[in-house]
Amino acid sequence: MLSVYSKNKNDGALKRSEISSLIYPLYSSRLDQYDHSNFAMENKAMTSITITRPDDWHIHLRDGEQLVDTVRDVSRYMGRAIIMPNLVPPVTNTQLALSYYDRIKAAKPQGQFEPLMVLYLTDKTSAADIKEAHATGKVVAAKLYPAGATTNSDSGVTSIENMAPVFAAMEEVGMLLLVHGEVTDSSIDIFDREKIFIETKLKKLVTDFPTLKVVLEHITTADAVEFVNQAGDNIAATITAHHLLYNRNHMLAGGIRPHFYCLPILKRNIHQDALVKAATSGSKKFFLGTDSAPHMKDKKEAACGCAGSYTAHAAIELYAEAFELAGALDKLEAFASHNGPDFYNLPRNTDTITLEKASWDVPDFYPLGGDKVVPIRAGEQIEWQVK
After folding, report:
1. What is the pTM of this model?
2. 53: Cβ–Cβ under 8 A, 6 or more apart, which residues?
3. What is the 8-class DSSP label of residue 146?
4. How far apart are CA 131 and CA 307, in angstroms?
5. How far, in Å, CA of 301 to CA of 190, rounded?
6. What does each C-alpha distance from 291 to 3, 132, 284, 357, 364 come to in angstroms?
7. What is the model's pLDDT at position 43?
8. What does the record give as EC number (predicted)?
9. What is the spatial distance between Cα 243 and Cα 265, in angstroms, rounded to a whole number?
């Protein structure tokens, strides 16, 4: 199989062992600047940690026969998850959202897993659509995709300014707005699109609707961290595990690794450092959202591959690695289990999970609706596992 890492020592690409040896020392040295000295000794000796059952506040489950596999992975230890609506066709109204909810439940999630549904905003979405969806109790948010920003976003919003009546209705009923924060102008460098979106679109939106709850999703830049920190308590952000653990060098240096390619794209290490500092700061404004996005193996390992990284197979384990490297395992529970439900005005989960410091081998692939998905850390080890 074509691997994310090279197995041929003569092809110029870094081998798996070389990648692993590079990621952690460099990452740890950069984190020396963070004031976690009070916890570092304790964390190094920590062999298990018990936390309130976490939730995933941003995940892609896809549809059809793939649901059995994606629902299995997310429901192993997540109590709830915000389900992204960018299906084909997208989840644009209440009927479609409730139908999708039923299909997810029919996939037989483990435990008491509850999907939290989201409307896909289009230029045709009305205030009445928002109020109808909110009244169900199952649709908790609406998603703003700038048209063309990411996978299956072609039906998204072409003019944020024209959505004022919809945002006003959301503000009125208390429905959250989830934002993919990138501009879509092809003349703007892909590494700058989040920063430009915040400056040209998001700042005005939150000023115009000062009580609208907004989640800036899967943030990737120091600019986004600064914006969220300086905004009011109605503004929050999700952060993925892969943006905490990796930067664009891991995707591009020594050979292209397509399974690290996602949108928003991995940024340089100074932005990675800012994300780690935000996630481990203890701030209630940041919480777990994996943005786990499965694509079939041949759609990723292609001349023009799809954007999305699959992490649902080991989400909380990967976050535990990131927090341990930052000397901040004591901050993991708030980030993974408390801040999200608190922001959504939902009760925290009442049961717990236990993570043990015990390495395990990640398979080269997982089943995905009769095909295969290559996960993050394929063919390598993860240092933590759920007991």
Report:
1. 0.89
2. 77, 78, 79, 337, 349, 350, 351, 352, 353
3. B
4. 33
5. 21
6. 22, 27, 19, 24, 20
7. 53
8. 3.5.2.3
9. 9
Residue list for the binding site for Zn(2+): 58, 60, 143, 180, 218, 291
Longest distance between any two alpha carbons in the chain, whole Å? 62
Q: Which CATH number fits domain 16-386: 2.40.50.140, 3.30.240.20, 3.20.20.140, 3.40.630.30?
A: 3.20.20.140
Could you check whether the bond before residue 264 is cis, i.e. omega within 30 degrees of 0?
yes
232/147 Cα distance (integer angstroms) = 27
Span 262-285, pLDDT tens digits = 999 999 999 999 999 999 999 999
pLDDT in tens, 79-89: 999 999 999 99
Comparing CA positions, the residue from 137, 76, 77, 66 lying closest to residue 107 is 66
Catalytic residue among 55, 56, 69, 291: 291
Binding-site annotation: residue ranges for substrate: 60-62, 86, 180, 263, 295, 307
Q: Say if CB 336 and CB 57 are below 8 A apart.
A: no
The span from the CA of 383 to the CA of 356, in Å, is 9
Tokens encoding 350 = 């009442």
Question: Given a cut of 90, is residue 228 above it in pLDDT?
Answer: yes
